[in-house]
TrEMBL record:
Xref: InterPro entries: AraC_XylS_family_regulators, ExsA-like_N, Homeodomain-like_sf, HTH_AraC
Molecular function GO terms recorded: DNA-binding transcription factor activity; sequence-specific DNA binding
Protein's name according to its UniProt entry: AraC-like DNA-binding protein
Residues annotated as domain HTH araC/xylS-type: 164-262
Keywords: DNA-binding, Transcription, Transcription regulation
Organism for this UniProt entry: Epilithonimonas arachidiradicis
Lineage: Bacteria, Pseudomonadati, Bacteroidota, Flavobacteriia, Flavobacteriales
Keyword Transcription regulation: yes
Pfam assignment, any one: HTH_18
Length: 267
């Protein structure tokens, strides 16, 4: 699949580096592939795929390069932009039961032509010239809504996350390395309410529970799945290997490496 000289580019506000999607964005993979996990299911994206990543979802990405390259087109639809669009183009929004983190969009002549149309505006620095950003974003949004009218119920729903079952929510999302404020917001609670209800359910603080739960999972992976420490620390929400090893030894009295070595000797 060839799209002339288009390389990675980005339109709209920057995407958060956290494992959290703060605003909807359109993603097109030019080169490479990617697997995303949202705590409930996996989403596989290959070169040439189009999808919508939905706001207020937790996601971890694993990127795979093709011939040493991973290139994508990202177009962000932030709330301020969407509200201005809605003022000019009114839509009747309805409730939706679809809670998928990624919505795949089939290629058609309009979207393909749109991607091709980005090339004249592309300045080679992963950013379209500022003059054309909102014009091109609005053009894409109109194409998407024309071909997939149900997307209006996704894009123009400006409500905060609904109140979730806290025990289920935390046991599904404890691996994500985000702040307590994010956990509270995504579970549909204020931070104070989140902490209070958390203590009632789990009989401990969120910080202590998260560390303990992640380390329990780590021990299981080391002992039963024969994983190596450097393969699991990041996916369990630890920022670096040394922090993971220190916390693991403090909880279990032995280092992750020793756990692996003992299992290797036994087998």
């Amino acid at each position: 699949m060839k799209f002339n000289n288009i390389q990675s580019c980005h339109l709209g506000p920057e995407i958060s580096p956290e494992q959290f999607i703060p605003e909807h964005f359109f993603l097109f993979l030019l080169r490479g592939s990617m697997v995303a996990y949202d705590g409930y299911k996996y989403y596989s994206m290959k070169q040439g795929d189009y999808c919508i990543a939905r706001k207020n979802h937790l996601v971890r990405y694993t990127k795979h390069k093709e011939d040493g390259q991973f290139e994508k087109v990202i177009i962000a639809f932030d709330e301020a932009f969407l509200k201005k669009f809605l003022e000019r183009h009114p839509y009747q929004v309805e409730a939706t039961d679809n809670d998928d983190s990624f919505l795949f969009v089939k290629e058609d002549k309009f979207i393909k032509s749109y991607i091709d149309s980005l090339e004249p505006y592309y300045n080679g620095k992963e950013q379209i010239e500022a003059t054309f950003v909102d014009v091109k974003r609005e053009e894409l949004l109109m194409i998407l809504l024309k071909n997939h009218s149900s997307l209006k119920d996704i894009f123009f729903n400006f409500n905060s996350p609904h109140k979730a079952d806290l025990e289920l929510f935390m046991n599904s999302n404890y691996k994500f390395n985000i702040s307590l404020e994010r956990f509270a917001y995504l579970s549909g609670r204020s931070l104070s309410t989140f902490k209070r209800e958390f203590k009632t359910i789990f009989a401990t603080s969120p910080g202590k529970w998260l560390t303990h739960r992640r380390l329990q999972e780590a021990r299981y992976l080391l002992e039963h799945e024969h994983k190596k420490p450097n393969e699991i620390y990041f996916e369990l929400g630890f920022e670096d290997l040394s922090h993971f090893s220190f916390a693991f030894k403090k909880q279990f009295g032995d280092s992750p490496k020793n756990i692996v070595d003992k299992k290797t000797i036994v087998h």
